[in-house]
Amino acid sequence: MVGTVEGIPRERVVDLFGQHVRAWGELTRNGVGQPLRLTIRELQPAQARTDIRSIDAWQLLGIASDWTSGLSSADYLREVRRG
């Protein structure tokens, strides 16, 4: 998914970088309902949630090691795109 920012000063975005935020805007989906793009038009700091544990994206690497049933990434994506 891609996120773009419209109408928010660059300095505001930079100040909030690396923080938990709440974002509002227009969400674009593909034909099967998967989110493709969020055009962010409002951005606010969010209170840190103490009831959830934050994890780094690298911690997810390898979480489903056989997700593609042995196919390479390129072959798997080719199959998915065929539907």
In helices, the fraction of residues equals 10-25%
Q: Tally the structural domains.
A: 1
Briefly note the structural class of the backbone.
alpha+beta
Helix/strand order: EHEEH
What's the number of extended β-strand segments? 3
* Low-confidence segments: none
Distance between the termini: 19 Å
Strand content is 25-35%
Radius of gyration: 17 Å
The biggest beta sheet is recorded as: 3 strands, mixed
- Rounded mean pLDDT is 82
Brief description of this entry?
The protein has one domain (2-47, 54-82). It has two helices and three strands.
Verbal overview:
This protein is α+β, with helices and mostly antiparallel strands. It has one domain. The protein has two helices and three strands; from the N terminus they run βαββα. Strands 1-3-2 form a three-stranded mixed β-sheet, with no helix packed on it. The longest helix is centred in the last third of the chain and has 10 residues, at 73-82.
List keywords for this structure.
alpha+beta, 83 residues, 3 strands, single chain
Secondary structure layout:
Layout: E1 2-5, H1 10-16, E2 21-29, E3 35-45, H2 73-82
Parallel strand pairs: 1-3
Antiparallel strand pairs: 2-3
